[in-house]
Amino acid sequence: MKLAALLAATAAMALASPAAAQMRALNDPVTPHPDPESLFTSDDPQENRNAQAALHIMRELLQCNQWDRAGEWLTDRYIQHNPMAASGLEGVVTYFTEVAQVERVDDCGELTSPIVEVVAEDDMVVVLIQREVPYADNPDETYTTTWFDAWRFVDGKADVHWDPATLPTRPAPAPAASAPQDEQAARAEIESLMWRYVRAADTLDADAYASVFTPDGSFNSTQGHEALRAMIEGMAEGQEQRRAEGTLNGKMYHVMANQTIEFVNPDHARVHYYWQTMFAGNDLANPPRIAAGGRGVDDVVRVDGEWLIQSRNVVPTEG
To answer: Is the torsion defined by CA of 210, 213, 218, 224 positive or negative?
Structure first.
């Protein structure tokens, strides 16, 4: 049958391993249809109903992420053969809305996926889709191949789903962190980074403070160099006003204690610590006081050979 031949050919393309010597694709380009929605039809009433339901899945669910409507086109038991999503209507909705965290598009419009062919036969619908893949040795260059989604329908709703997805392959272990001398040097650089951080915070030097973060680095919800500078400048203005009013005395000091550095990989580490913000007293009438304290977890990364703070979280939810 035509459907069986298409499934067999597409599965072979998805699973075949190219020869190691083959560096460029030899196939003809995979070309999408100019009017993909016109493909989701059949002269048979049942097959046409299933094809139209597949169109809604492709357009309203997969393109526009209207997963609150999934029950219109998926059965409650929805058996899933994609290894990254659980079976059941609730499972697939959870995957897209909570794991993938897709954003809903209210005004859906026409289907824009590069559909190559749609085959509706009996209770099955198979959708072939152009897939553009970058070359491993030059991501700026790409070739085309074919993805497929296949569904079995029951009473106009998709009940079983197949595609050629696989689990992510395990990344190769990073060798650099295994060298003790390299890790020791990295620890020293990270400790210097944290010292520069607290000195910039204590002196309210906005430029120095921002410079210890990556361009998209964050202190809790404050993200980016401009926002970080503004945060420190606002602190400086506030402290100046409180000192003028006589409600704030002594210099500010940040204390990081019980610090430990956990390497995620050679260019990414996680710093765990306890912290205190304190103000030194001027005299016996104004003794030192602790303004705040807690636990922190910072992610630091090495960018062009320099360790910088990617995120500083002084109110972690766990622990």
So the answer is: positive
Q: 282: pLDDT confidence band, cut at 50, 70 and 90? A: low
| 2-15+27-162 CATH pick, 3.60.21.10, 3.10.450.50, 3.90.1150.10, 3.40.190.10 | 3.10.450.50
Contact between 77 and 87 (Cβ < 8 Å): yes
DSSP, collapsed to helix, strand or coil, labels residue 56 as: helix
Whether 285 shows a pLDDT value over 70: the answer reads no
Tokens representing 294? 């807690």
Cα 174 from Cα 302, distance rounded (Å): 14
The model's confidence at residue 21, banded by pLDDT at 50, 70 and 90, is very low
With 0-12 / 13-18 / 19 or more C-beta atoms within 10 angstroms meaning exposed / middle / buried, residue 53 is buried
pTM of the model: 0.51
Query: How many whole angstroms from its chain centre is CA 13?
Result: 28
